[in-house]
Amino acid sequence: MPLNLTEEQILQLAPDDSSVKAGKGLATLSKWVLRECSGRAVWGHCQGSGKNPYQTVIDLNDIAFKCSCPSRKFPCKHGLGLLLLYARQPDQFTQAEEPEWVTAWLAKRTEKAEKKEQKAKSETPVDEAAQAKRQEKRHQKVLGGISDLEVWMKDLVRNGFLNVPERAYTLFDNMARRMVDAQAPGLAGRLRAMEAIDFDSENWKSDLTESMGRLYLLMQSYRNIDGLPEEWKDEIRTQIGYPQSKDNVLAGEPVADSWLVLHKQSRKVNDVNTDIYWFYGKESGLFARYLSFAV
Q: May I ask the CATH class of domain 254-294?
């Protein structure tokens, strides 16, 4: 089947820069002793340093990868290389019947997707009272975290910024962890951004002051959230770190555009890997952010 991905989009799937480089290096015919495809998958054998070649397969209907190599990166360099090669030279792949190892993997993926769909259909109606109770419990936890953060900020301002550069890591990291415990990951992210300030630059004091001011404004906005318009409530909760359901996001007005990837940032907080992508719409002039979480 034709691949509706550009080379740039494929490279965006890479977990890091080294995987991009390695994947490009494997996107050549000489690296693959077998190259085959079907209407729903592409697979191949890549000869590595071992006796047996690595078996790599890609689900083309819902881009996913599987490889027999020992790499813990996902996708690995073999998956990236094979997909890049297929995007560039699809005519160099032979149409063939799927081998058992490909069929078994695709069948497992289909079964998993069907179970997920059935589970979603069979879910019991939401207990609104219990949901409201959980939301109120989280709200109080966030308020408690904000109170601790305010005391911390005032102590920092009272003592001055002179010693901040030499103790930036522990200073911001400890409070960021406290915000995660308070279920306010958005505040934790802002604290980690302060930690990443270039303290060797001449402007670090003004950068830190501005970041502190914005953080304090967000804290006070959340404390007074009940008196704000509904659209501002949603925005402030999002900035604090409340998740938005997929259904709510998809219910919004879609914007069709050519989206440029401006930046990608990856971080790990309490065993949760977070990838953040920033986009810019060429025609609309809008900015967008995409979040991906994985344990």
A: mainly beta
CA 191 – CA 171 distance, rounded (Å): 9
Q: pLDDT tens, 178-205? A: 999 999 999 998 999 899 899 999 999 9
Pseudo-torsion of CA 200, 202, 205, 210, nearest 10°?
A: -110
Are 173 and 195 a contacting pair, CB within 8 Å?
A: yes
pTM over 0.90: no
32's CB contacts (< 8 A; 6+ apart) are 44, 45, 46, 82, 85
For residue range 75-124, list pLDDT tens digits in order: 899 999 999 999 999 999 999 999 999 999 999 888 888 887 777 766 66
17, burial (CB in 10 Å: exposed 0-12, middle 13-18, buried 19+): exposed
Q: In which residue are the tokens 């505040």 written?
A: 187
Please state, in angstroms and rounded to a whole number, the distance separating the CA atoms of residues 290 and 116. Answer: 23
Q: Are 106 and 98 in contact (CB under 8 A)?
A: yes
β-pairing, 32-37 vs 287-294, is: unpaired
Q: Rounded to an integer, what distance in angstroms lies between the CA atom of residue 293 and that of residue 295? A: 7
Q: Is the dihedral of CA 155, 160, 163, 169 positive or negative?
A: positive
Segments making up each domain of the chain, as ranges: 7-118, 129-240, 254-294
